[in-house]
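Good morning C.,

I know you're traveling, so I'll keep this short. The sequence:
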Amino acid sequence: MRIALIAPLYEAVPPKLYGGTERVVSFLTEELVALGHDVTLFASGDSVTRAELHPAWPQALRLDPLIRDQLAPNLLLLEAVHRRADEFDVMHFHMDYLPFSLFSRQPTPFVTTLHGRLDLPELKPMFNAFPRVPLVSISDNQRRPLPDANYVGTVYHGLPAGLLTPVSGIKVEYLAFLGRIAPEKGPDAAIRIARASGIPLKIAAKVDVADRVYFETVIRPMLAEGGVEMVGEISDARKPAFLAGAVALLMPIAWPEPFGLVMIEAMACGTPTIAFNRGSVPEIIDDGVTGIIVENEAGAIAAVSRVARLSRRKVRAVFADRFTARRMAQDYVAIYRNVASRLGSDRPALMEAAD
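The tokens, ready to paste straight into the viewer:
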């Protein structure tokens, strides 16, 4: 198939450090190329891919100190895709609702993967205005706020099988927190859980500008009390050792996590996860096999003493069975073909809904 993949411009594909959406787009792009498809990636110019790269902006917006209006480059990206739309059998967007209006008014099939939360009240009118746009959820739980949207499938994220692997010979001696410092991710809860368990905590995470006040007023004072090492952002190359040395990954989330890529990153390294029962967690974690699902901090503290009994070999085996990038790419190809085959009957209704 001739496939266009369209990534937001905030991070490169793949991102240099943190960037869940762009990382998934990269994994998908490379697997589609490996499967023999003709793929064009629309992304920032500092992206790296075996597909044809259409550089819609010179570099990732987060790394461009001159950018103050990030929407403008992304709208230019959409225009560039629109001008080449007739070159593709299907277009796959990763920009939430931004492509809905423009691309509902042209004939090439397209699908949008929703990467974020859908429980914001301002989103419902947008999705109601475009009820026929084909959507992919990244967990079934993600759909709950908008159950009547036009979902054509749920595709769980996947990682390349050899990207993150177990590391032997590393002493397992701390708990880990990986990802982003933000209230909804629960790093403050992770610190309390680790301290109550008597085990050191290592935090490998970025601090966005939007979360700087939270970091300075809540997290930094907790770090000063000791027992916690702030590692900062880490690359994929550093993740295996970081995760393999952890008793468990802590994921005490305070929001309906749409997927949670860190869970399968830990899984790939054979490391179990202790996670709060919110959002996608019960779909991703096999309770008692790849981790322990708990309801609160007290449950997480109790789980720390039990998690070492889980088989790390089994954790990795479940990853290989459920969460590889190859499986993800194959799932998307099936959706592409389904959406393309429905073009003749659905396109008039799609156009009418947007007009």
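Safe travels,
E.
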